[in-house]
Design a protein that fits this description.
The protein is α+β, with helices and mostly antiparallel strands. Helix content is about 45%, strand content about 15%. It contains twelve helices and ten strands. Strands 7-3-10-9-8 form a five-stranded antiparallel sheet, with helices on both faces. A hairpin with a 2-residue loop joins strand 4 (about 135-140) and strand 5 (about 145-150). Helix 1 (about 5-20) packs across helix 3 (about 40-50), helix 1 (about 5-20) crosses helix 4 and helix 2 packs across helix 3 (about 40-50). It starts with a helix and ends with a helix.
Length: about 350
């Protein structure tokens, strides 16, 4: 266990390195921070921190920089989440309140996160498996062709065309729409298959084929892989941190193009708490020089999706964590009110 003083020295090193982008020396630490000890004592503390693997000496510089292990300790024990200012909170609320639908909410959230943190923002669309049904609409396009529109409690809208085995009357269509909504509205998507399995039997024999086809389309919509969608923004921000990545940022950019990689990263975030993955804690080799800060968001207590940012390990963790948490909270409120 490190002493309180050495923890303070580590905190100071992280803060100075993040702020200045320069390796930190003992003289600079004693000048900038009230550590209450001499530079010689600080040098001794830095030697211990280096031996323990919390800081390292880059090249032949006299200064030290935090390692992944040092950042990990900083995040776990030393960094509080920096709250946003009142003007920042108002700006977030005003910007997100202007959204017209779910796609707009996600797009605005990505832009906002990228601007607030100056990192790469990643926002997952609400998962259908965690959503409830708000409404199912059925529209006649032709005598034997329908459109099924599924609307979720998070504002997500899914549309599918249905080719019926036989013509379907307007009366039968209205009847199916009413019976279907009476069974599934307000219910979890995972419950829908059981709730509608006997519905065809309640219709006239000549309509059962069409009812079964509509239900098959509905159930396919619930399990399609397209539900795992996300939006990414602010990739250009990485160019500001070129020197933070070994050799080149190309492996980072290539990893960010792989949606399955990003979904896995977000999937590691706990539903309620914030998750921070630093450097080599990230399994994907292309992202070993980055950190990920992610949290769940949703309408109510349960998270329906995740959002977060990806940036260099030399990031402002307290500020980034505060921004990610605040944006997630506002997006959750919008979904709850939508």
């Amino acid at each position: 266990m490190l002493s309180e003083r050495r923890l303070e020295v580590l905190r100071a090193i992280v803060q100075d390195y993040v702020g200045t982008e320069e390796p930190v020396g003992s003289k600079a630490l004693t000048e900038r921070h009230r550590l209450g000890v001499s530079p010689a004592t600080v040098r001794n503390d830095m030697a211990v921190l280096e031996d323990e693997g919390y800081i390292a000496q880059p090249h032949t510089s006299a200064g030290r920089i935090p390692t992944d292990k040092g950042y990990r300790l900083f995040v776990d024990k030393l960094a509080g989440v920096k709250p946003l200012s009142s003007p920042e909170r108002r700006a977030i609320q005003n910007f997100l309140d202007g959204a017209v639908d779910l796609d707009d909410v996600v797009a605005r959230t990505v832009r906002l996160l990228a601007q607030l943190t100056r990192q790469v923002a990643v926002v997952q669309y609400p998962s259908l498996t965690r959503s409830t049904v708000r409404h199912v609409e059925l529209l006649a396009l032709a005598p034997a062709r329908l459109m099924l529109v599924l609307i979720t409690d998070t504002g997500r809208v899914e549309q599918r065309h249905v080719d019926c085995p036989a013509p379907f009357s307007d009366t039968s269509l209205a009847d199916l729409r009413a019976r279907l909504n009476s069974r599934v509205v307000g219910r979890r998507f995972t419950d829908v298959p059981q709730l509608v399995q006997d519905l065809p039997d309640s219709f006239e024999p000549e309509d059962r084929g069409t009812v079964s086809t509509v239900l098959s389309t509905l159930l396919e919509t619930l399990v399609e892989e397209t539900e795992e969608r996300l939006m990414i923004g602010g990739t250009a921000n990485l160019t500001r941190f070129g020197h933070d990545f070994p050799l080149t940022i190309r492996p980072v950019l290539e990893a960010l193009e792989e949606q399955v990689v990003l979904l896995k990263l977000l999937g590691e975030a706990k539903d309620s708490g914030m998750t921070v993955r630093i450097g080599h804690e990230i399994a994907h080799e292309g992202l070993n020089s980055t950190s990920v800060v992610a949290v769940g968001y949703g309408s109510g207590d349960e998270a329906v999706a995740k959002l977060g940012v990806v940036g260099p390990t030399r990031m402002d963790y307290p500020g980034t964590m505060g921004a990610v948490r605040a944006v997630a909270r506002y997006v959750g409120q919008i979904l709850a009110e939508s």
